[in-house]
């Protein structure tokens, strides 16, 4: 049954799909680049992609949160069962938390490890953190745990989105899908 509801505004949809595409690229690239036995030049290229795209993701997530704060999202349709509304709320809350934690922990891991972030360095934005192996290792552990939590939540999120799009066909998926308005 098609439920009566509002949809996300264009900037929210653009930010959602751009961040989604970048995060979906960051996870496999991050997992691949730390493997042993990769050639030095491939590994360097993956690290450079990961660090610098990660900074861009951090900026986009900041923009997304600011936009969401000024433009609250449409309410979920009343017809959805309470438990599904609760799962959706907490999944989204944890997803937002993780996409904030990942760029910050990545930045801290790299900068307190004393390594470059080429994009920021080229813009003359030096490190904000002193070198510290203890801090770098703590950030590395957080980044690693966050990556696994993110994989689980992204899988839940995509599963729920597909269920709405293909099985329930209740219009919830279309709220975020590109449209002319
Ligand atoms: C949404 C953003 C991000 C996602 C989803 C992400 C994801 C990942 C994943 C899945 C790994 C592999 C973890 C492992 O198996 O050890 C990883 C590692 C890494 N990431 Fe990220 N990352 C993000 C942002 C960043 C940023 C902004 C930086 C730095 C500026 C960064 C730097 C690193 C580094 C240096 C490693 C290797 C850690 C190590 O083994 O020392 N990441 N990331």
Compact summary:
With 181 residues, the chain is mostly helical. The protein has helices at residues 10-33, 40-70, 82-112, 118-122, 133-168. It has a single domain (10-175), classed as Transmembrane di-heme cytochromes, Chain C (Fumarate Reductase Cytochrome B subunit), CATH 1.20.950.20.
Question: How would you portray this structure in words?
Answer:
- It is a single chain.
- By secondary structure, this protein is mostly helical.
- The protein has one domain (10-175): Up-down Bundle (Fumarate Reductase Cytochrome B subunit), CATH 1.20.950.
- It contains 5 helices and no strands.
- The longest helix is centred in the last third of the chain and has 36 residues, at 133-168.
- The model is unreliable at 1-5 (pLDDT under 50).
- Protoporphyrin IX containing FE binds at residues 23, 26-27, 30-31, 34, 50-51, 54-55, 57-58, 99, 102-103, 106-107, 109-110, 117, 140, 143-144, 147, 150.
Unreliable stretches (pLDDT < 50, length at least 5) are 1-5
Gap between N and C termini, in Å? 23 Å
Just give the CATH class: Mainly Alpha
User: Beta-strand percentage?
Assistant: under 5%
Spell out which ligands are present: protoporphyrin IX containing FE
Shape: elongated
Write the element-wise H/E pattern from the N-terminal end onward: HHHHH
Question: Can you tell me the CATH topology?
Answer: Fumarate Reductase Cytochrome B subunit
Number of helices: 5
